[in-house]
Write a structure and sequence with these properties.
Layout (H helix, E strand, L loop, with lengths): L12 E6 L5 E8 L2 E7 L2 E2 L7 E4 L4 E4 L3 E6 L4 H9 L6 E3 L7 H4 L1 H11 L4 E4 L13 E6 L8 H9 L3 E7 L8 H13 L5 E4 L5 H14 L1 H12 L3 H18 L16 H19 L3 H15 L5 H6 L3 H4 L4 H13 L1
Parallel strand pairs: 1-7, 3-8, 8-9, 9-10, 10-11, 11-12
Antiparallel strand pairs: 2-3, 4-7, 5-6
Helix pairs in contact: 1-3, 5-8, 6-7, 9-10, 9-13
Length: 343
């Protein structure tokens, strides 16, 4: 493979188009091991620089267009609150932001505040600075890895200084971020920046994802693109990335940093329910790491049930009735019940 030459990026031309209604997507999403019930999208479209970014939900590197029209959601938090209050229960992922547009349009800040007003647990994807103004346990900030900025320590420091729980989400890319030295460097950078967590993510393995990995590497380090070609297209991802994931988890443990984000607790959510959901999400990650996807799927279904229960399950557990209402078997019931009673 012949690596393409690097050219100076053209100046981005971004046109913002105001949207009357909030843009939201429902479904069963996952970000760094945590369940997301709803995505709130303050800005629609990807444009500007750097050319490539990483989407931790789709688990792919994506390309931004040099110029594009981007929808800007409403700047009224109440509009977002009304939209999010009608949707399935569970955490909301707000973002990503649009750095060029947020100072003018304010859609990201409005979506964040609207989600909080709706009583939802909130994950902020690449927030534009210190948001919200009064952080609490209902908000966790996710700073994502970028091919053009492999060590985003300053972004994490800024959020940590504002008392937000903030950490780093990065993909394990063959021949790039999956080598032991690279993993240790990323964990070390997160620790030095004061991150609350550092979460490794296994990338999508489809052909389009592989091609974009190589394109991003060719832009950021042309001399490395050919070297990783074989590992990306013909390497044993299962072995390499399983080993890299283990290195990341071990390095995070040595640094006394969790390898999964904390789960936020919404203002309208019982604390014990949030604790039980968090514990089961971590159990699902462990099952996935051991390739027991059937069990992991059942555990995630149990998390969805807890999020949608609509009542304080700790009271049910204290009465000794939790095992009777929990529909996912006695073993999992005991795991959830311990978290409910310990919260």
């Amino acid at each position: 493979m012949e690596a393409p030459s690097r050219a100076a990026p053209a100046a981005a031309v971004i046109a913002f188009e105001p949207a009357e209604a909030p843009a939201v997507r429902t479904g069963e999403f996952e970000v760094a091991g945590r369940r997301v019930a709803v995505r709130a999208l303050p800005y629609g479209g990807r444009a500007g620089h750097p050319t490539f970014g990483f989407d931790p939900v789709e688990r792919v590197i994506f390309r931004r267009r040099a110029d594009a029209a981007i929808g800007a959601g409403p700047a009224d938090p109440r509009a977002w609150e009304a939209a999010l209050s009608r949707l399935p229960a569970g955490p909301v992922l707000v973002g990503p932001s649009e750095p060029a547009g947020e100072p003018v349009w304010g859609a990201f800040a409005a979506a964040c505040e609207g989600a909080r007003l709706a009583g939802r647990p909130v994950y902020l994807l690449d927030p534009p600075g210190a948001l919200p103004s009064e952080p609490g346990p209902d908000v966790v900030a996710l700073v994502t890895w970028s091919p053009a900025e492999p060590a985003p320590g300053e972004r994490i420091r800024q959020l940590v200084r504002s008392a937000l729980a903030a950490g780093y989400v990065f993909p394990l890319l063959p021949g790039w971020t999956s080598d032991r030295a690279a993993v240790l460097a990323l964990v070390g950078e997160a620790r030095e920046a004061g991150a609350s967590f550092i979460a490794p993510v296994l990338p999508d393995r489809g052909g389009a994802s592989r091609r974009t990995i190589l394109e991003a590497r060719a832009e950021t380090a042309p001399s490395e693109a050919e070297r990783i070609f074989g590992r990306v297209h013909h390497g044993d991802w299962e072995v390499e990335l399983t080993q890299a994931f283990s290195w990341a988890v071990d390095a995070a443990s040595q640094a006394n940093i969790p390898a999964i984000p904390p789960r936020p607790r919404g203002r309208g959510e019982p604390a014990a329910n949030a604790a039980a959901a968090a514990r089961l999400e971590e159990l699902a990650v462990a099952h996935s790491a051991s390739a027991d996807e059937h069990r992991a799927a059942m555990v995630r279904a149990a998390v969805r049930w807890i999020d949608g229960s609509g009542r304080d399950l700790a009271a049910v557990a204290r009465e000794g009735n939790f095992g009777r209402v929990f529909p996912f078997g006695s073993e999992l019931a005991r795991e959830a019940e311990r978290a409910l009673l310990d919260a």
